[in-house]
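Holo prediction — iron/sulfur cluster.
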Amino acid sequence: MIASPRRRTIGILDLVTKSARNSLYGRLMNANLASIMPQVLGVWCEEAGHRVRYVCYTGGEDPLAELPDDLDILFIGAFTQAAQLAYAISNLYRQRGTVTVLGGPHARCYPEDARQYFDYVLGFTDRAVVQEVLAECAPHRPEGRMVAAARQPAELPPLEARWKFVEAALRKAPTIKFVPMIGSLGCPYTCSFCIDSTVDYQPLGFEQVSADLAFLLTKVKHPIVGWHDPNFGVRFDDYMEAVERAVPPGRIRHIAESSLSLLSEPHLVRLRKNGFQAILPGIESWFDLGNKSKTRRTGLDKVQQVAEHVNLILRYVPYIQTNFVLGLDTDEGDEPFELTKRFLDLAPGAFPAYSLLSAFGRAAPLNLEYQRANRVVPFPFTFLNNNHAMNVRPKNYTWPAFYDRLVDLSRYSFSWRAIRRRLGATEGMIPKWMNVVRAMSSEGWGRISYHRTIRRLLDEDAGVRGFMQGETDRLPEFYSRRIEHDLGPLYRHLPAGAMMHDPNAYLKSTAESTVPIARPAPGRRAARPADHPREDATAILGPT
Ligand code: SF4
């Protein structure tokens, strides 16, 4: 073990959101989106003898006010939408003499860009990687040093060890509190757009899952656990036995993401018995990715089969969110959108979450194809959250045609009629009102208003039209002004050049293989893996 020569003052900042511009839903839920890896990092650093200050930034506070000024090293964990905020904070702390490190989804997806603004950029992260960085703890400029483990390690610190960090994050959740847990990494499926499609499925020790749940019950009488597994329940029976070993029926409520193929009726019976309250399957498309819905059907056939399955799930689990990816190359004309409306008619209890097709740098091999075809639009990272921008030019639609259908579908999905039908089709106070709040907040009406603005700008603003059609890479004022607004007082710390990035860096790196990645010497004591980097802000509510 590389012992760090001296005790360091370490800051750990988990950027759950990109700005202080919080919707009602964000104010209620952001603290429940805290990632597990920054908390794991806190455990490793304290076990190595360092002083740790952990902050989960939820948008309602000033991140700088909660972090000491005199840090030796600052670790920032961020999804891509919070990259500009991370770059500004790193720049400010580097001017104060602090060494800065970026980890998490953005670091894994855009290392070439991030290393211009951080001293270290981490890929797969384990204890050895962290100790390597802490031991050296030196500025690396103008380009940061890339450090990564060969793969995700096999186990995690116990919940008991990271409990103080869990509590610190949940203190910021005003009403509902989700305790973040994870029992497996990677996924056996290979959805072309997903960052986990290239990570081998790996359970993290079912004894540990039982021990963590038993510990949790000593802390909270009736907790809600949010499972961060990319695809919960792959080893279903082992998982349920681990839960049943530690938890008396009805003592813990669970939320998880599982593909439809894992949600058979016998499994649903057992999920209900063990208190599963919400499930978030990925349907994604009516013309693609059928394997994870266990169907070869497409089009209306798939709609009818999946709607039946979703209604079955709602007979056992009170809350369901169904994830869709809009704009895939298999989509053409009105049909994909009309079929989704048909699905909502047949399964009114489902809350639809629409992700716009997005290429997050190195997240998925498919992104190389989009880059080779020069279809990636260089939207600044702030807008890459699957909703505020679609950075892949659609194959079968013009932008106006796509946004017309997107606005139409969103209106249909969050109309008063849909809200009433969803209210009537779900049981239980919390599921009912969660759906109403989400529909009336940033995820429903907020999105409709935003998509309508983009649609209007496509007609009225030649700069926006030209930028989205690839005729110019000059960022339209509409977007630069939003970044300035989102960053607020931190905007002046955004380094020069950090507003834009090279959308084809991944492709160029494969050709040139320019990025030297340092791997700590093998054979060190087994360390813990990086958090599950779902590249969308709603950590617990991403695609599965
Ligand atoms: S989208 Fe879900 S099912 Fe598909 S690879 Fe990713 S985690 Fe697995």
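READOUT: The domain at 159-455 is CATH 3.30.750.210 (Transcription Regulator spoIIAA).
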